[in-house]
Design goal:
The structure is a homodimer of 300-residue chains. Chain A is α/β, with parallel strands linked by helices and 300 residues long. Chain A is built from eleven helices and 13 strands. Chains A and B meet through helix 7, strand 13, helix 9 and helix 11 of A and helix 7, strand 13, helix 9 and helix 11 of B.
Chain lengths: 300, 300
């Protein structure tokens, strides 16, 4: 079976919600991605942790065929992030970001990983994303995530990187900011013109839009009544999306659409628990049942 | 064929957008509703205009089987509204609201209208909506629209009115405000508990959600690239929805879902021109083609 490589962060998060406070729980884009993608296909991870990292924390991922041989361990502390969500869970405040060993992260792709057909570049510095692309041997499908921090701080490098990938996943506000647009459809056309034929715009509680060569697909968000912890929703969406696509092997529009739904379904489970707790016990059977609900939600 | 009765405003609007300024063009909830609903079924209108009203302005609606025998004409000026849209067409500023003859509007339902099976109470004072309901002879399906102004100013009367209708159509923020909620799914459950089994939440560019006895349907917004004038989007949505439902005659969940899509499709045309200009020349054939695009947009 094909596998998927993710390059991203591994972190210990401290999260406050109106209901609860959870400290130093496993987080980071590469972790959420792996927890989601490994439901479908083998995953390889390139990231960095500090000498305080407890390898038992990722034992459940190893059991699911997630390969951590590309994980570097460096002297110092693991990346730490703290955030607080308000009553309206759509808004969060970052309390602190201690990059620690992640500050000097230099992604080295092990020889055995270079032919991985599916590649996901999580939200890291655009030059590092380029550096990963340069090490790979013609992957079948490459996708990157990014954020306002890079749009505002490293615009030219980011645009150059976007030109090199097949797909991009991005928040709605960031998609508009990226190409200086106020209309999302025009924004997606402009991003397509840069190069990527696949664009996924994440709209949070409003769902997600997929554009494949300017043909549009709309996925609703699952109506989650009790959001426990929104952290990792985007990365688990990406993991579900890439994992499903990897399992199918072929990047057709039909597979891309189903992948968006699987990504949305995984993300809807992710936010039902703190950290990766809900993803850890999630079964494919539960996931398929939710995908059937997505189908029913848009049928007319 | 069944028909639908709308009680609402008739106005002359002045609208500014970054591109253009149009003064004293036909507007008001009852007008946008009629222009949309009359594509499907006969419409009856109860509203009020001043002695300055130019009846030629509604000639195109009369040709489409819209019955204005219930329209009152009072001494004074017709309701006038002025607004300005920013570059991001999602935001508008009301420049003035001159209620004029609409201030003392007292909806009288003609005898011949009282058995109309479908009734839409556009966004007017809740007591007036109740007063209309009291005059009707057991309509098959009643739906009301409302706004933050009534939620904030006439809360108890509005809640009483909501208890009396089968359905409600409301903006997302207003749905949350109405039942003091931050989560939309919980808000829709609370509104259902008040009485209406049909709830439509309008989310603007994010589409619309339908809840039928707490079963959810999600409709995307059509990806309109060039929004010319958003005025009347909500009322033409309601008109398309009620018109389609009236044409089908039976209020089943399947018909309600299709009605939401037809409403969304009509609204997407409405915003492509100033005032009712695009609705005036809209054909059922164009509409059906767009509905097919909606289907394609959510297929997976």
């Amino acid at each position: 079976m094909d596998s998927v490589l993710v390059v991203g962060s591994v972190a210990y998060d401290s999260v406050e919600t109106p209901e609860k406070k959870v400290e130093n729980s496993l987080g980071g884009s590469a972790i959420y991605f792996s927890a989601a993608a490994s439901l479908f296909a083998p995953v390889k991870v390139v990231g960095v942790v500090g000498d305080d990292f407890n390898w038992n924390d990722i034992a459940f991922l190893k059991e699911r065929d997630v390969d951590f041989k590309g994980m570097q361990q460096a002297p110092g502390k693991t990346f730490r992030w703290g955030g607080r969500y308000e009553k309206d869970m759509n808004y969060r405040k970052t309390l602190y970001t201690d990059l620690n060993v992640f500050e000097t992260f230099d992604p080295q792709i092990p020889e055995a990983y270079k032919k991985t057909p599916f590649l996901f570049l999580a939200n890291i510095q655009p030059q590092l994303q380029q550096c990963v692309l340069a090490q790979m041997a013609r992957p079948r499908f490459t996708m990157l995530d990014t954020m306002n921090f890079w749009i505002e701080g490293l615009y030219d490098a980011l645009i150059e990187t976007i030109k090199m990938v097949d797909g991009i996943v991005i928040n709605e506000e960031e998609a508009l900011e990226l190409v200086h647009e106020s209309n999302l459809i025009r924004a997606m056309k402009k991003i397509t013109a840069l190069g990527p034929r696949v664009i996924i715009v994440k709209k949070g509680e409003h769902g997600a839009m997929l554009s494949v060569n300017n043909s549009y697909f709309f996925a609703p968000a699952y109506p989650v009544e009790n959001v426990v912890d929104p952290t990792g929703a985007g990365d688990s969406f990406a993991g579900g999306f890439m994992g499903y696509l990897t399992k199918q092997g072929e990047v057709t529009e039909s597979n891309l659409r189903k992948a968006v739904i699987y990504g949305s379904a995984v993300a809807s489970f992710c936010v039902e628990g703190f950290s990766v707790s809900r993803l850890q016990k999630l079964s494919l059977q539960e996931l398929n049942a939710r995908v059937a609900e997505f189908k029913r939600m848009v049928e007319f």
